[in-house]
């Protein structure tokens, strides 16, 4: 998928909305087309008359005029073809269940790191790319098979079936994967240390693990004094 996914941020706190917009612009494949500070403003920006062509909404659950759940309900009632990702501090199970029932695809709890945020968006982008590719492959019939559906939905789920080697944690791995997926550049262990706040030795262990699982490619980096440094790049 080469087309940028257009994002509408719905967040009543201006500083937080600005921070979320900055995060989105750092994730490859996304662009911010609007920021709404209330539910009604968001619904207006999603209307066909607004002509923003929003693909995905980053939706807070606590808004001054209505809940995020109500916004999601109205989006579905209006048959608007947009996806919804909740970005909120609300942790109540009832809210999470209601969000899912109205088609919320990801639920990101505040506060969060950029790496965690980037990973969620990268997974959503992979999901969108899977569906776009599969629908294009079948032409105008718009029909896909079970395997295509499974592949698309699996993109939204964190892979947790395979046990990690001793000493590696899922949380740290998730942060590192999120960072690697968010950058187009190859990185060294030292550069990863600065980005994710782990030691150089720890960074190298995770990078070598990801290399062994073929999620990351490894090459020597020339042009630096002394012994060539290794650099790692996420494999899409």
UniProtKB/TrEMBL annotation:
A single MF term (Gene Ontology): DNA binding
Highest taxon listed in the record's lineage: Bacteria
GO CC entries: cytoplasm
The keyword Disulfide bond is assigned to this record: no
PANTHER family tied to this protein: TRANSCRIPTIONAL REGULATORY PROTEIN DCUR-RELATED, TRANSCRIPTIONAL REGULATORY PROTEIN DPIA
UniProt xrefs under InterPro entries: 2C-system_Tx_regulators, CheY-like_superfamily, FaeA, Sig_transdc_resp-reg_cit/mal, Sig_transdc_resp-reg_receiver, WH_DNA-bd_sf
Keywords: Activator, Cytoplasm, DNA-binding, Phosphoprotein, Transcription, Transcription regulation, Two-component regulatory system
Stated name of the protein: Transcriptional regulatory protein
Segments of this protein annotated with the region Disordered: 217-236
4-aspartylphosphate modification, residue list: 60
Pfam family, one: FaeA
Localisation per UniProt entry: Cytoplasm
Domain Response regulatory intervals: 6-125
